[in-house]
């Protein structure tokens, strides 16, 4: 005998919300959809979703509400008018927002008798439900336990704690890593382009190099957690000596260096403070405010 899967209402059918709703449908959940611009419900209704005429209709249709809007202000904007109907429901808010906003929304939801989970989606819409997609969740532990299987329709479900702000913190930590890599990649391509090298000639070596460097992340974490920064890989002193060559190479091709100047200042500071023999893992310590 098959057990009925929980009903889900998905509010916000942009690129990501539509992918989430489609994944819930594919996994066999009854899905109600609502979007400010109603026309976006069409493709999902064609796949079996029930369209809600308004937010109240979506809230009334399922005990699990999944929200994916542009900002958390939008989330408050659509939920405030139906706050009186939220008692007993679970809100899984997968909208991008700060940890502080996640905590505020959790307190607001609790004030209206609803359970709250905040989520950070680590996937593009095309990756949803695939093997590499996952979502960080934080907030009400019982709500996560109850809906972990349902969230499995989207990909991995990683619970990171009761503090509703924690998922956003993990999300941004990973996005910061991604943007850092993006800044490096964009300068690498700009340098190649300025020197007349086709981007495709650089793509494979760049990807191979970044993959190889990513293997050091676990060792770096260990160094940070133990405070053992002495290195047999590459010292801050040698990086201090090499970085001007990198900046000069960019300058020689007319490419701005301002993204890398703060890195140069940080390495200089580290060496001045006596950490020249340490590895790059010393730098996060210098960025962390002393409490
Ligand atoms: N797309 C991605 O790859 C990333 C992956 C990681 C997570 N992000 C976050 O997901 C949120 C939604 O992003 P999105 O890509 O789906 O964005 P859009 O396609 O632009 O859709 C935005 C939806 O939000 C609705 N909306 C905006 N403002 C309001 C409002 N004031 N009231 C009600 N709904 C609103 C919008 O409605 P409409 O314009 O279609 O009427 C869309 O449904 C986001 O937090 C990413 O950072 C995605």
From TrEMBL:
Residue span, NADPH-dependent reductive aminase-like C-terminal domain: 163-287
GO MF: NADP binding; oxidoreductase activity
Keywords: Oxidoreductase
Alphabetized Pfam families for the sequence: NAD_binding_2 (PF03446), RedAm-like_C (PF21761)
Domain 6-phosphogluconate dehydrogenase NADP-binding: 8-156
Family listed: Belongs to the HIBADH-related family.
Organism: Streptomyces tsukubensis (strain DSM 42081 / NBRC 108919 / NRRL 18488 / 9993)
Descriptive protein name: NAD(P)-dependent oxidoreductase
SUPFAM superfamilies in UniProt: NAD(P)-binding Rossmann-fold domains
Extent of the signal sequence: none
């Amino acid at each position: 005998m098959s057990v009925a899967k929980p009903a889900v209402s998905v509010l916000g059918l942009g690129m990501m919300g539509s992918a989430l709703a489609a994944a819930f449908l594919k996994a066999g959940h009854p899905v109600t959809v609502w979007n400010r611009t109603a026309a976006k419900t069409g493709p999902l209704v064609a796949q079996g979703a029930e369209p809600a005429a308004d937010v109240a209709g979506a809230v009334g249709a399922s005990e699990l509400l999944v929200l994916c809007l542009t900002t958390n202000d939008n989330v408050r904007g659509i939920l405030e008018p139906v706050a009186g109907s939220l008692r007993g429901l679970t809100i899984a808010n997968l909208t991008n927002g700060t940890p502080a906003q996640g905590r505020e929304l959790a307190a607001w939801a609790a004030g209206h008798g609803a359970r709250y989970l905040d989520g950070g989606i680590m996937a593009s819409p095309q990756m949803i439900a695939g093997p590499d997609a996952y979502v960080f969740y934080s907030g009400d532990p019982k709500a996560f336990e109850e809906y972990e299987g349902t969230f499995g329709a989207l990909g991995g479900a990683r619970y990171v704690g009761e503090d509703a702000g924690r998922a956003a913190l993990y999300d941004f930590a990973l996005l910061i890593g991604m943007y850092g890599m993006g800044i490096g990649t964009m300068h690498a391509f700009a340098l190649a382009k300025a020197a007349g090298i086709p981007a495709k000639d650089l793509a494979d070596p760049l990807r191979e190099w970044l993959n190889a460097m990513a293997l050091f992340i676990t060792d770096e974490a260990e160094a940070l957690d133990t405070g053992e920064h002495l290195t047999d890989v590459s010292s801050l002193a040698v990086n201090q000596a090499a970085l001007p060559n990198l900046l000069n190479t960019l300058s020689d091709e007319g490419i701005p260096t301002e993204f890398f100047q703060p890195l140069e200042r940080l390495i200089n500071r580290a060496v001045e403070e006596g950490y020249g023999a340490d590895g790059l893992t010393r730098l996060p310590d210098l960025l962390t405010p002393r409490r």
